[in-house]
Amino acid sequence: MLIRAYGSFWNPDIVNWGSVGAGNQGQLLGKVKISNRTHTIDFWDAVGIYVLHDQFNAVYVGKAVGTLLGPRMRHHLTDRFAGRWDMFSWFSLSTINTTNPGLRAPGTRQVNPQTLIDTLEALSIGVVDPPLNRRRETIPNACEAVQTGGKPKAIRSYLEEILEKLDEGS
CA 125 to CA 128: how far, in whole Å? Predict the structure, then answer.
């Protein structure tokens, strides 16, 4: 197993981003189902790769290794990518600990070549979402994390905000 957990098209508006240097690290909360039990896990300290999306299109792929997932994503709120993405997906190599809900750093491991190929194919399809692929592949033995932490706005709210901005400009 290479990818241990992943989250697709998460909404940054409902993430607790914390604050830099104030001791508030933030939280990337997701629910995972393992052995018919649902656990809420904080993926802030995850190690892996992530994708920034703008209107469901991948616009940037990055890695979270030296700097963990949460701080990397928070940095993209104010760096050169600020305002250029509206969702993100992530793929974690960190091990999920369900006894004491959280993450453990990935150790070294040997991966079967077939598992590696299946994982890379599923990951590529999940990121790119090519129109000619007939089905979405699943990442072998990985848990999908469904975002928690708040209630996303309805699409109508976003459209009303845009209309208000357009009215202010005229």
Answer: 5
